[in-house]
């Protein structure tokens, strides 16, 4: 059966809060999970990817639990400029994304 990946549709935050986006999946044989941000021009930015270890990149941190099949993307001290659509992907499976809306 086709692998399943799920994450929240929409989340809203106040600027300065730490944001957490969860990603649950059913991919037992994945080689890595990836988090992307979609920019306004439609371009994709790969934020983080990992196999089974936590990693970070600036304000972004990815925690991962390979056994329990989930990942969390944290955005530290969220800024309005980081509003947008975030995708979690594993192998060839991607979600519908999470729309993050940040207000001052």
TrEMBL record:
<dbReference type="InterPro" id="IPR013106">
    <property type="entry name" value="Ig_V-set"/>
</dbReference>
<dbReference type="InterPro" id="IPR052051">
    <property type="entry name" value="TCR_complex_component"/>
</dbReference>
<feature type="domain" description="Immunoglobulin">
    <location>
        <begin position="8"/>
        <end position="103"/>
    </location>
</feature>
<dbReference type="InterPro" id="IPR003599">
    <property type="entry name" value="Ig_sub"/>
</dbReference>
<dbReference type="GO" id="GO:0009617">
    <property type="term" value="P:response to bacterium"/>
</dbReference>
<keyword id="KW-0325">Glycoprotein</keyword>
<keyword id="KW-0391">Immunity</keyword>
<dbReference type="Pfam" id="PF07686">
    <property type="entry name" value="V-set"/>
</dbReference>
<dbReference type="GO" id="GO:0002376">
    <property type="term" value="P:immune system process"/>
</dbReference>
<keyword id="KW-0472">Membrane</keyword>
<keyword id="KW-1003">Cell membrane</keyword>
<dbReference type="InterPro" id="IPR036179">
    <property type="entry name" value="Ig-like_dom_sf"/>
</dbReference>
<dbReference type="GO" id="GO:0005886">
    <property type="term" value="C:plasma membrane"/>
</dbReference>
<keyword id="KW-1015">Disulfide bond</keyword>
<dbReference type="InterPro" id="IPR013783">
    <property type="entry name" value="Ig-like_fold"/>
</dbReference>
<keyword id="KW-0732">Signal</keyword>
<protein>
    <recommendedName>
        <fullName>Immunoglobulin domain-containing protein</fullName>
    </recommendedName>
</protein>
């Amino acid at each position: 059966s086709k692998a399943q990946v799920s994450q929240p549709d929409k989340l809203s935050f106040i600027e300065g809060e730490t944001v957490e986006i969860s990603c649950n999946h059913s991919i037992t044989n994945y080689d890595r999970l990836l988090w992307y941000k979609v920019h306004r021009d439609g371009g994709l930015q790969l934020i983080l990817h990992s196999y089974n270890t936590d990693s970070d990149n600036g304000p972004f941190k990815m925690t991962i639990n390979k056994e329990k099949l989930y990942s969390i993307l944290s955005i530290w001290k969220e800024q309005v400029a980081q509003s947008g659509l975030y995708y979690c992907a594993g192998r060839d499976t991607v979600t519908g994304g999470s729309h993050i809306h940040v207000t001052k």
